[in-house]
Specification:
about 725 residues; Immunoglobulin-like; 6 domains; five-stranded antiparallel β-sheet; about 25% helix; binds 2',3'- cyclic AMP
Length: about 725
């Protein structure tokens, strides 16, 4: 009888397997697997190694991949792009894909939540084959954390913690999202009433809505636009029995959102008037001549009276002329309440009276010159409740104080700009006199920045500065001179929008702790004020530009006090001699150059606010120019960029540390071997850190002071002086 050779029937040894009984040979267990019994049909995977259902028994066991590496992000408004490299360890598999998890974090660290629906991931959020992804529709000025994980076919089997790479980003300013729901409320023969909902992501305060409309199929020939403050508009001047197409978009200080989907509405039938050709020609001629007269009046006003039209951004201007229909912007002038015989009349003329019962005061947030500043809520019938700041007039005031207090409201009431604090109204008919303004969650800019030293990207800082310059452009266009422009008088809201505030007539004399009496008797905030305004009291928009330069410095130095602890007298003398504040640490050269331009001695040489806005816009658009940090390239402006202290009187390192009020670090310098100012002047930020000085504020102060000493020496000994 024929028998099977013995080896055919031999059971597989340990470490070998045979997937089915038969005549095939036993195979060695693939990598990361083992058979620990004889005659195994499969080799079991080692601990933490797995096989997925489609892996044949002959393949090696594999494990989940490690985290992706080199994760980098780039932010563009509210869109971010993430790029990463594949994990170092793919777990032995080729089917690696990536998942991205997005979490939105409140400004107060620690509170994060999933990003939710509206966010758009391109190409997709999960199971990405490529190592990059774009995430759009994020909220403006928001912190986000992105977690990128690599997964493979066996990731789901592992109970171990997933491996992620994470990146934190902060989004920038962005236009509002699209208006999605528009409805027709009413139609008439010549008008249509539309209502719509605020966009899901306003990304700031909505300044206005723009309604674009045209006769159906005639968009190419002409369309018109209309502005509305609310989510409702009555479009008039329409033809009866005609089908119109409407679209709405929202505008914030960051720009216009996308137009909504179109809505078609047909006006009702009517008794249309018929004109003969002569009548039409006559009406046109009358309209054109009226327009010419109006234009002439406006141009005259602008040229001769120093006033100008209200805020109109370039985008708006484009829209006005685009379709060949010129719509004149409303011409606005600032009226000084002092020119009123009875300043209370100015309050009545300009400011809205609010009934005290409409205001709920919830807490005190500070104190102003005239009394406490409170946080509260305002509910006007037909509108939703809004948070407000309430300035109160303390009891026991006299009539002059009351007038001065209310004068701020009559000034503020005349302004309407996204970067100027908005007045809700005044309460004058109740026992407590109050000024009610919009509430700015982050308070004054100087304190805000000090509490967030180093927190913001340069683009965020420049965006804040752009907002302030835009508000100042608006004010200067109206012929209003602020006289006390400083970071302490700028308020910041939760979207980081900065608004110019503090318009009281007497504030410069009384309110400002930084104001000092000059020889001419006035009280002036010396560190922020242009030399000609200090000496001759010639305040102008050009002197506001000087102050703006100081605000730029304050912002880039995160709320540092301009000219540090120098006395007012030393500041005046140093500025007079041509010394200027050096660039704060990490300040791009382009920004320091703009500051220096604002600090030109000749006020006619200083840029106007309109130029400052457009320079900042260009820098925001072309961020390359913001990369050159002036810490490396400090002395490009030898005549102006000079240090501030008289270091000649500081003979030793100890003297110098005392002079900048950091005497507590004398031992650190001694132990580090820095025994002379010459050695100190060669130090960089790492040397300072190596001395064990951990407070960032102190590191910065020391570095800035060293830079000033260097600048001082270069200015004294000439640019060939090498340190
Ligand atoms: O730095 P702050 O918190 O911001 O402290 C001062 C304080 O009141 C005294 O002026 C705050 N403040 C003033 N106006 C407003 C406002 N409209 N919204 C929020 N805070 C305000 C300011």
């Amino acid at each position: 009888m024929w028998t099977w050779p013995l080896f055919y029937f031999a059971a597989c040894d340990l470490g070998y397997y045979k997937s089915s009984p038969g005549d095939q040979l036993c195979s060695k267990c693939p990598p990361f697997s083992l058979s620990d019994t004889l005659a195994s049909q499969i080799c079991e995977c080692d601990t933490n190694y797995y096989r997925c259902s489609t892996d044949p028994p002959s393949t090696a066991c594999t494990r989940p991949p490690s985290a992706p590496i080199n994760l980098i992000s780039s932010v563009n408004g509210t869109t971010i792009t993430l790029d990463w490299s594949p994990p170092r360890d793919t777990g032995g598999r080729r089917d690696v894909t990536y998942n991205v998890i997005c979490r939105r974090c409140a400004w107060d660290a620690g509170q994060c939540e999933p990003c939710g629906g509206g966010v758009r991931y391109t190409p997709q959020q999960m199971s990405l084959a490529k190592t990059s992804l774009t995430v759009a529709n994020l909220q403006a000025h928001m912190n986000y954390t992105f977690w990128v994980e690599a997964v493979n076919g066996v990731s789901d089997f592992s109970l171990e913690q997933r491996m992620f790479s994470t990146v934190n980003i902060t989004t920038n300013q962005a236009a509002p999202s699209q208006v999605v729901v528009i409805r027709k409320e009413k139609t008439a023969e010549n008008s249509v009433t539309l209502i719509w909902q605020e966009p899901d992501q306003p990304n700031g305060i909505i300044l206005e809505y723009e309604i674009k409309y045209f006769e159906k199929d005639k968009e190419m020939q002409s369309y018109s636009t209309l502005k509305a403050k609310d989510t409702r508009a009555v479009v008039t001047g329409l033809q009866p029995s005609t089908r119109y197409v409407f679209q709405v978009r929202a505008r914030t200080s960051a720009g216009c959102g996308r137009f909504s989907q179109t809505v078609e509405v047909e006006t009702s039938k009517g008794m249309a008037l018929r004109y003969d050709t002569m009548t039409i020609v006559w009406i046109c001629l009358t309209l054109i001549s009226g327009l010419i007269v109006l234009l002439t009046v406006i141009i005259c006003k602008k040229r001769h009276c120093g006033y100008s039209k209200a805020f109109q951004d370039s985008d708006e201007e484009k829209m006005h002329y685009q379709n060949g229909q010129i719509t004149l912007a409303e011409s606005k002038v600032y009226v000084d309440p002092h020119t009123y015989e009875d300043p209370c009349q100015a309050v009545r003329d300009f400011a809205r009276e609010i009934e005290a019962s409409r205001i709920k005061i919830e807490k005190i947030i500070g104190s102003g010159e005239f009394g406490e500043v409170c946080y509260g809520r305002l509910k006007i019938p037909g509108k939703r409740e809004v948070p407000v700041a309430i300035k109160t007039l303390k009891v026991g005031y006299n009539e002059k104080q009351r007038r001065d207090f209310l004068s701020e409201a009559s000034i503020m009431a005349q302004f309407d700009h996204p970067n100027v604090i908005h007045l809700e109204g005044v309460v004058t008919r109740s026992k407590l006199t109050m000024i009610v303004t919009e509430y700015m969650e982050n308070g004054s800019l100087d304190t805000f920045l000090r509490s967030r030293d180093g927190h913001f990207t340069i683009i965020q800082l420049v965006s804040m500065l752009r907002g302030i310059a835009s508000g100042m452009k608006y004010l200067s266009d109206l012929g209003y001179v602020h006289r006390d422009l400083a970071a302490r008088n700028i308020l910041v809201n939760s979207n980081l929008v900065c608004k110019v505030s503090d318009f009281g007539l007497s504030r410069i004399l009384e309110d400002d702790p930084d104001a000092a009496y000059t020889t001419t008797g006035g009280k002036i905030p010396i560190r922020w004020t242009a030399p000609e305004a200090i000496t001759y009291r010639t305040f102008s928009s050009a002197s506001d530009v000087w102050s703006y330069g100081v605000v730029m410095w304050e912002v880039l130095a995160y709320g540092e006090r301009p000219y540090w602890n120098m006395t007012n007298r030393d500041v005046i003398n140093s500025v007079e001699e041509g010394y200027r504040l050096p660039a704060p640490m990490g300040c791009p050269t382009a920004l320091h150059q703009l500051m220096l331009d604002c600090w030109q001695r000749d006020r006619n040489e200083r840029p106007r606010f309109s130029l400052i806005v457009s320079i900042l816009d260009k820098l925001i658009r072309n961020q390359e120019h913001l990369k050159l940090s002036s810490t490396l390239n400090r002395f490009t402006h030898p005549r102006l960029d000079r240090g501030l202290f008289d270091f000649a009187s500081c003979a030793t390192v100890d003297d110098w540390l005392d002079s900048i009020k950091l005497g507590q670090y004398k031992d650190n310098f001694l132990m580090g071997g820095y025994r002379s100012l010459g050695m100190v002047m060669r130090m960089n930020i790492n040397d300072i850190r190596r001395l064990g000085i951990s407070l960032i504020g102190h590191q910065k102060k020391i570095l800035t002071s060293i830079q000033i000493m260097r600048a001082h020496l270069i200015n004294t000994l000439g640019p060939r002086m090498h340190l």
